Queue: 4 jobs
Job 1
Amino acid sequence: MRIHFATPPGPVSARALAAPSTEAEAWLARLDQNSFKAEPEEVLPILTDQGWRVLVGIGERSALDDSALRRIGGSLFAELAQAGIVHLAVGLDLSPEQTAQVAYGIFLRAWRTSPKYRKTPDEDEVWHLAEVTMLCDAPERARACFAGLEAVGKAVHFARDLVVAPGNVLTPPAFLEALGTIPGIEIEVIDPKKAGLNLLQAVGQGSVFKPALAVLRWQGAGKKDRPAVLVGKGITFDTGGIDIKPAKYMEMMKGDMGGGAAVAGALMALAARNAPVNVVGLVAIAENAVSGRASRPGDVVKSYGGLTVEIVDTDAEGRLVLADALAYAAKKFTPSKIIDLATLTGAVEIALGFERAGLFTTDDALAAQLFAAGEAEDEKLWRLPLTDLYDHAIKSDIADLKNCSWERGPDHIHAARFLQHFVPDDIPWAHLDIAGLSEAAEDGPLAAEGPTGFGVRLLDRVLT
Amino acid sequence: MKISFAKPASAPEGALVVTVLEGRQLGATGQALDAESGGTLARAMAKSRFEGKKDQTLLLHAPAGLKLDRLLLVGIGKGKSFDAKAAQALGGLVVAQLQGSGDADVTLAVDPVDGAALSVAEIAANAGFGAKLRSYRFDRYRTKEKAEEKPSLKKLVITAAEHGDAKKAYQPLEAVAEGVFLTRDLASEPANIIYPETLAEQCKALAETGVEVEVLGEKQMKKLGMGALLGVGQGSERESQLVVMRWNGGSEGEAPLAFIGKGVTFDTGGISIKPAASMEDMKWDMGGSAVVIGLMKTLALRKARVNVVGVVGLVENMPSGTAQRPGDVVTTMSGQTVEVINTDAEGRLVLADALWYTQDRFKPHFMIDLATLTGAIIIALGDQYAGLFSNDDKLSDKLIAAGQAVGEGVWRLPIDDAYDKQIKSEIADMMNVGGREGGSITAAMFLKRFVNGVKWAHLDIAGVTWSKKDGPVTPKGATAFGVRLLDRLVADNYEK
């Protein structure tokens, strides 16, 4: 689908819907009030003798912030992609900047799983809509605004492509290969066995595929600028290991690299926008497989950071790979800050549901930045406790730490506290548990049911 | 256990407790004893790992050169961080260490603490408060306990130079302790003893302290249209009650502060019956109401200069032939209808009517409700914080500050409209459950529909009402979490 910008025939303001003689007014007059209330995100296509006409609700103009505009765009696409319309012109009497945001919403929503996983395309997934022309005054200005947004949008799509990829397709080496294709990003692959990333190695050792730590670099600022380091959990498939998961819905575990996908997407967006910042992305990649070589419950492993960890639950593996990646980040890159993202726990879904991701940090300023970015991008966060009050849960009888507690309780907090042990106190650090947000169980304004790319836009905003 | 205050003894005997700052720095009393004994204390410290760090203790029996039977050195850490909470913890620790020692009388010598912001009187009063709180024991059903299994400690004398001031400072704290003890008693009582009518009787007993008490039975509630509350109780033989308690310590006509408590005296889950394991814990599903009752007692005892109304909805949730069924639709007092998907999400049904009634009748300045409401909050925050949900940022900040001050932490959680879709019903205005995910949030979203725009905060205390282990000033069992928090909220912000 292509998105263009053009000037409408006649100035936009002259075509505003206010004039009672316009066609739109005529349609409104014929409609039952309950069938179209002109509330934001309402879309009503009408087939007329002259072709399709679409009524779009935008609510109060004064309430049209970027978020509202994007959602209107997203709804437009969702409602019209399969309505039989091939070429859509959108003239909502908005400024070029606002028009670009609507286009951004359309772009974000216009993603679907690659047809490569089917022999014949699914009829239900075919889009009729092929071309969208956004009408506004100064279309070149809107186009310029949109270019930056589209760069981020493409990165969101990239992250979704990664998340939706099956575990036999996006294996650890395939994940590395995909990361190697990001334009403008250098990639270095660290062998955990050689580097002493023993927790990452322990998680991946049951798989036929070797685990890896991918180091992605974007150098947009001066060499002396300390980089922000992003760390993503990249479990390409999580069986749970020897503590194997129940069969039901286990296929969802192909998405257990959502944090890694968000990090990759963020790097892609920053590079595409040529952002003047230095960022290192670390993706801890492993397949948590069951086999004769897999780690056992009770195994004790010496982490890269030096602390020993008793693996009481092989299915609490995300925190293990992150722990090594965090310690590596702190040691190798003198980071200005570290932000990690992971589809880490089921408990965070009980705590916050599907509307907000868990935010853990002891740095109030970083918390405020991330929270604000989340509100602005509709990738919302909520801060949760991170204190030593919870440490008893990860105290091991044999090693420095155990990776989780079997007691019923706040596993997401325990996990965050576990990770904190691997980050030096003087580095601002935040952990985002995105388990409830990386994939959506139902259609939303900017993403259909399925992978959301959660985190890409948030990180892109917070780092620039 | 009796707490008293006295001037420092010139020649202490029996069992004595002295404090030590980090770095083995003895307080004045300790220094005097050390001098008198020719260095016994210093020698004992030097020969042990005791450094005076917070919560470290060193017990000396019949210390050489002194007339004492027992001397307990208690570490209080760094003077700078020795605040009221730390002083309370000190008192609690003394009780924990010595209540089974065989001593009936113990003296705690309070000296000025270098670097602390507290006066000696404040330290003494708070230590007494902590000791009192920690000494709580629910033993009325133990009929054959041997003497050596019972605590020996009967009396704690706290000596301090400003003992008169200490006694004065202790009085309001003692009122808080009385409220806390009432709350703990009520939550600890089994459900065959405490049920809606007997719990209402307990409320009536507050009349002695000057609280006005009014009890509404099922007939009256039916008249008011409280279909949600009554629906929960309809499976039980016991009659549901709604109790209104009023303390008018403020000026006449001033809008009251309102506290509303969930009082499910036993929660079987109803037809959506709970699994058997640990179901006995459900006797304390009236923990929210117990806090409101204890709080009313505290405020009345210390003659708080504020108008307060406490409302508790008391029901027993039982399965029976008359119990409500999953799928039943009930009409609340507000007129909104609820589809009862799960009869075990009953607390919100009780609160819905209690909240609506409270704002409708009393036009309160704010409403704060407390409830052991959801299992999800135990996952969300564990046993360290209660969940705080509010439509008012300032009230939230005040609650968070009060919680920090007393050591009853509350953590704010979101109530975005986005969560509303989870409780959308196919048949009624809403459902009473919204699924596992965000379970505490959707419960709060449900309650929000019954506050009618009034300033409101909801405390989900399911994770903090009962403790499996001893805390500094809370023995394991019923914690009365909320009494100290809300007393502090009122004292710091709403009394003239």
Job 2
Amino acid sequence: MLGILQFLKGYVRMKIWGVSPERFLNLCSNKNILLWDIRKDGDVYTMCISLSAFLHLRPIARKTGVRVVVLQKYGLPFLVPGLLKRKIFIAGLFLCVAFWIVSYRFVWDITLEGNYQITQEVFTDFLTSQQVRVGMQKTDLDISALEKEIRRAFPEITWTSVKLSGTRLEISIKENDTPMFTKPEVPEGGQNLVSEYAGVITSMIVRSGVPMVKIGDIVEEGTLLVEGRVPIYNEDATIREYMYITADADITVEHSITYQDTLPATYIQKTYTGRRSSRPFVRLGSREIKLPQERPYLVYDTVIQGHTPMALEKLSIPLSWGQYVYREYMNVEHEYTLKQAEALLMEKELQFLKTLEEKGVHIIEKDVKIEEGNACWTMEGWFLVDQPTGRAVNIVLEETVPEVGE
Amino acid sequence: MKKKQAEGPSRREALIDSLSLPKDILLGALRVTLTGSQEAWVENYKGILEYTECQILLQGKNCQVCFEGQRLSIEYYTNEDMKISGCIRCVRYQ
């Protein structure tokens, strides 16, 4: 730090000799002049002194009969006059500084992280509609307003953070992991619960409504399970009126599900030939400059290898370069072996079972077989499952008025 | 009576001792701090009497101190303190 200050203020290395150099040193210290790196080479003393103090040395030197000669000049005050003569250098330095200062006023990159359901394109369109784009001025950006607008426009976003890091706008969001439920509309006339499957009732917990079946009953698809029309009785056990409610119950039915899945006997696999070609490009903002090239191969895929420079680790520049790498491949047809087919079909079956379990279905028994069919592998079988049932059906109001007891 | 004063500390020194006050400030005594044999910090001096590569002689208020050694140089020199560096062989009070 001291060295930097000395450099900024400027200092000289001088040599003194004469009648009484020790007295010269003492007088300097009495006048609060700092001397450092004092050495003696024969009859001559060399030392460093700040530029401002050097200008006050004349009376001291005269008083002590000492001669002072400057050996070397150091620091910015001596450097600037030399630099000023190099006009192109100064102009370049000025332009460079001006470029950084002007560049720093704009947003040159926008990053988004934490998005799973919302795609990058959707979010980019939203930002464009909010006048937030690459190349905008930082002063036009209202971060807190943008955060509020993001939360308002995307209800599934539970947390938002927008910050400017250098010239990069970093947007972090957190989406709601749990699915969003909407309150179902309750119909005026009430709802019944009917069976969705044909089978045997294995459990039944009714929360509202009149149960029409019991555990162990065999039901068909569409059989009324719980009625939403609840009778209200008089004291003499006659029905006074009906109250229409939405029937609610947890009912499970044991029934069998048939399962069938097929797998083609052959599959296509990419086999790279090893031939590849590249095509360099330079991207300036949204414009891309690349060399013209014919279709490189008959069948190929493309890999983009890009490089975006970052100045001072923060300042992103709207300039990137890289190359398109084209890799030739051939579509080669292979046949599944029995083991491969079994493994793939078993995996698909496991996926199906997992989907059932997520729906609350309990697998009691299963029987599946894999057979080689005509140009395909087939997996067939059945599962005996215990599955929740109960589909809500609106009650059709009858015109007839129920009997009213006296 | 004079003989007695020469043998023991003066009244002023005795008073400063009893009050546990810093002697270097009140008596103007030289304060020399040595770090190994390479560096020495000196305070409360009046000035430099002699400076060569082998010897630096300093004037204090009551005495003189002489640093003897080889390749002696003064790192910095102000009105308050100074730093001597080099190969210091002995510090002698005169």
Job 3
Amino acid sequence: MNTRDKGTDLSRRSFIKVSLMASGALMVGIGLGQRAGAGELIDETWVANLYVRIDRDGTVTIVSKNPEAGQGVKTAFPMVVAECLEVDWKDVKVEQAPLDDRYGRQVVGGSRGTPDGWDDLRIAGTGALYLLKEAAASLWGVPAAECSARSGTIMHEASDNTARYAELLDKAATLPVPDVSALKLKSRPEDFSLLGKFVPGVDNNLILTGQPLFGADTRLDGMLYAVYEKCPTFGGKVKTANIDEILKQPGVTHAFVVAGTDELNGLLPGVAIVGETWWEANSARARLQVKWDTGHSDSTGDFDRQAARLASESGETMRHDGDVDEALGTAEKVIEASYYYPFVSHANLEPQNCTAFYHESGKMEIWSPSQNPKSGRGLVSRVLGIPEDRIHVNLTRIGGGFGRKLISDSMVEAAWIARQVGRPVQLQWTREDDMRHDFYRPAAWHRFRAGIDGSGRMMAFDHHFITFGRDGKTISGAGLSPKHYPAGLVPNFRLRQSIIEAHVPTGPWRSPGHSAYCFAYQGFFDEVALAAGRDPLEFRLDLLSRSFGEPPLDLKRTGDTLRIAAEKAGWGRNLGPGRGMGMAFHFDHGGFVSHVAEVVADGPKIRVEKVWSGIDVGPVINLSGARNQVEGCVVDALSTAQLEITFAGGAAEQSNFHDYSLLRLDRAPEIECHFIQSDNPPMGLGEPPIAPATPAITNAIFAATGTRIRELPLSRSGISA
Amino acid sequence: MSHVKLKINGQEHSLDIPEDMPLLWALRDKLDLVGSKYGCGIGICGSCTVLVNGQPAQSCRLPAVKMQGKEIVTIEGFAPNGDHPVQRAWNEEDVPQCGYCQGGQVLTAAALLERNPSPSDQDIDEAMAGVICRCGTYFRIRKAIKRAALEIAEGGSA
């Protein structure tokens, strides 16, 4: 059994740790003076900088600054530091940083962790090593440039001197901070000994033995458990609630109405019930009767009717290259199709939760599985009126993010409830809360017309995008860049946009936008290729061979990923009856990914057997983590292609995994990854593989069954996978 | 309130709990055994899986009062050093992404190998379909089960 931490003591410990680091820290990183080095010896530990500590007993501790949501950053980031510090991975201890502004961006999102952290992490490792070399050189009276390092040891061959890092700490701590320009940073795969290898996650043993890691695993002395009931209609306010009756329920310690704020992204109004155990609090909730002042009544049926009406209107022209109408008028052939995908939920396996303790001193301490703790801290500060420097946020492991935990609703709810209660409180949403109060990936309609010329080339592309917004502007996750391909790849291009007014909450969902509309583009490209009598691979490579104005993506890197996926899949080979292959390319969040999927069909029941992936995100940091993201994205795409959230009377209709049924192991394909280690800075991989996975699969379904998937979920076309 | 005696990970616990409290919440909120996770509360996602007399069961749907006299093993008590062939295979294949479901996956896989030391793909499909992995680590779970099976066959202790 894990012992309960005393909240105050724990926070004091972590504050001390941080402040000691601050006192001795070399300010490493962009915006912090571009310096690295020196640091301070504190007791038995050399605090080289914000990321590196070395103890006299030889222990090397590397701090991971970003939250870990399964994207593998807690392993990958310390690997970069260890690579540059020249220490053996087995000798490294990894520690999770709390939210601390000195680290800069601490966000899981936008696949930005790797590119943003790449310089800081290399500077941290290389800067600490620089000082250790200088320390050894000065002790031995030799030039530092003649010293080398390996496995936690500095060596000087000519004088036959060696020293373990731990022996050099006193000296290193006295040396001046080097300028970043003095550091030679490793950057190419041939320089790496650890990076690019298959390294298992640093928390694996804790995960596999059930140790506390996640938000709701937090246990504090005197902690109570809370549930929070919100209006099923988004943003509805509490008129009355039977609080007195709820307070009489067994185990209930507190129950109260929270007035909340007026914004969907603030503190939604509701009723908090707090109890000795979560089960008792949630059982009392079954007796809760609330009269709501409900707001809007969005429904899927109404959205559909509005979309049908808007489809016949012209919409707002967002971009027009050449003359689309004239080009379509003179085209050899015009191909038309409409694509649709529904709203979907993030469905993190770990429902939203947060633990908070408002100390008597006025300090708010929070334990949160947040993808964006800084934004959460700002929200708590704004809504509760607590200065940000009085709010301390501990980053717990996140049980799946996918964008949902960029939004801090559970954090502000927990903080509000905890302050009112005056004891540590753990707020745990039910699965039903989670699914009914998501910030959904928005649905959209795409009406395409393409013109091909006598040689089968696409020379005109007309696109009417029908999406969601408020006050004439697209809402979160519902926008589409006018620069998106095939803009720039065809001489005549037009994008028109129409907006349906919506009041349901929407938000970033893994590779926002891309993960949805890539399905439409790449499905339609297949239709155009086939109408032109061309092979889908050859058609796409030809499309990527020319640009008109600024190309919308790196044509060579995109083409290379497509070629390697196709080559490894054996594109064009005879598959026999009931089988088919489909492909798609895409570029988003700095990553180039193409997939080829092979599908076998038994009537309308299909199975995705295998997916071959071509990926260029620059040098791979952790081969295991990188493959994991590709594999996860493919499964996520196949799963989500079979799901939808619908609305009636302003509320989501789905509530749990019985009516929002995530893919299970028996339907998961094999995935084979091929990384092109191009000469580019490394980019993140949590998002880029998902967008092209959906159309690779739906195009393969067409090849295997003859059913063109123009709408999701797949069940709309009578297909199940 | 009911008074119950539960045998969990080989240890006897005496608890006063509500009559209808599922085992999951007795574990988490009464005993601070937080390795069993809450995912759906309706017994279909498998994050809360424990072994009851060696069989995988969804602890979010099992009333704790009915668990008296049974041997309950949670992921904390399964192989606390992490050296069971299934845990080792899970680490070597680096199965976990977020890790939230993996306790349930490991216990379910271990129970499968206990009764069927060399499972076919179809056996794996059937045994593992009860545990959702939202991150999509399924391909690695399959590989890890096969790796563990091989190790057990070669004499690694199960």
Job 4
Amino acid sequence: MADQQHLEHAPHSHVTPLYVYFTVFFALAIGTLLTWYASTIDLQEWNTPVALIIATIKAVLVILFFMHVKYSTRLTWVVVVASFLWLGVLFVLTFADYLTRGWLMK
Amino acid sequence: MSDLALGNEHHHHHPFLQHHFEDLGQQHEASTLGMWMFLCTEILFFGGILCAYWIYRVMYPEAWAVAAELQNKLYGGLNTIVLIISSLTMALAVRAAQVGSRMWQLGMLFATLIFGSVFLAVKGIEYSMHWHEGLFPGSHFTWHEHPAVAQKVQLFMCFYWGLTGLHALHMIIGAGLLLWIIGRAWRNDFGPEYYAPVEIMGLYWHFVDIVWIFLFPFLYLIHGVHHG
């Protein structure tokens, strides 16, 4: 949706159209209502994944549009992606331990 | 490439261009990058606590579901909406600086400060309620509706007070930074050429919003198996 010519090394000048901010806002509000509603119904083992997926989508929307990462330099992208990569390492390695502790007993 | 041509156009020295940067564009990119480096440490800081939270949630799923039922979902949900609105007004404040509107900038920054304060006020009401319900960990913890899981509920409340407390601390720091940015916007420091501090303020504010986006379902909305 963004004007492509602004993406590459525009010094500091990408002005996001107002409708983008309002669309993202409404998506975030709907996501909040959805995550509340999803918690009131029994989805068996899917309640937690659904809550996580909605929260992740909301976070990505905020990062891309409110935090302007969509229009940022590649170096900024590297730092943002690296942040979540390390967060992933933290969780995956920790749970590779905790979730498998009972397996040896069986 | 085009930077050279751009640099030649600007013979005057912008008052906020620091001497070690080529131009305001480079300065802005350096500021943004530096802020993201800091936010990376913040993501891992909150991430570490959330990882501990998930370890215990996996170990004691029933206690976690019972404890989440003790939270005020209405206040939590209302606060989520309030924080999202404050993120919108913050984004609009950055945009107002980009297009050089001092009036909208001040209005949106002030609105962000107001919504942030509403969030903290609601949080304060919740804290007071939990305190009187005996849900503060330690010797004040007197809640024992379900004695079988009371100790684990207390553990959940450690995470609740710790996580929301650190989040509220970030909000208070954010409100202080907002006051400073409002002061500078009042002096008309920002415009299309130079608005990096407003942008950085926005990055911080939105990050704090993202933390809450995860805290709300993690602390308020756990669907308990036995609750149907």
